[in-house]
Amino acid sequence: MRALILSLLLVVPALPAVSAECGSIIPSVCERPLDDPAPARKVLKVKPTVTPYRVGDRFPFENRSFVMDPVRYGLAPSDGTWRYYALSGVVYRVQNGSGEVLEVIRSRRTAHLR
Q1: Fewest Cβ atoms closer than 10 Å to its Cβ: which of 19, 25, 39, 107?
Q2: How far apart are CA 18 and CA 29, in angstroms?
């Protein structure tokens, strides 16, 4: 029993001294002083999406691929005078030749189209 007490007395000086700033012997706890305020909560702000093209605007269909199977996405089949084009999750019904936007379509079924 005396050997145990003696070994404990020898180990105590080997422990680090208690920090005066925060009162802990764990250095990572003492990294931030107690009088500093807690870090502020981060709040994400989501900007509403704005479609770059509206009905009547000219859509640059020359460098975009059209939607091949509109029925698959719940869209009406094309009659040949217009086609569907997707850009950033929004589908545009565009008149052939002039490129005029006839309709702007947003739906869950087309939200993944880029």
Answers
A1: 39
A2: 12
Query: Which are the contacts of 106, defined by CB distance < 8 A and separation ≥ 6?
Result: 51, 89, 90, 91
Domain range summary for the chain, segments of one domain joined by +: 2-31, 61-110
What is the rounded CA–CA span in Å between residue 94 and residue 114?
Answer: 16
Q: How confident is the model at residue 59 (pLDDT cuts 50, 70, 90)?
A: very high
pTM for this one? 0.55
Beta-sheet pairing, 90-95 with 101-105: antiparallel
Contact criterion met (CB below 8 Å) for 54 and 66: no
Fill in the amino acid letter for 113. L
Q: What would the mean pLDDT of 18-40 be, rounded to a whole number?
A: 62
Residues 59 and 109: their CA atoms lie apart, in Å, by 21
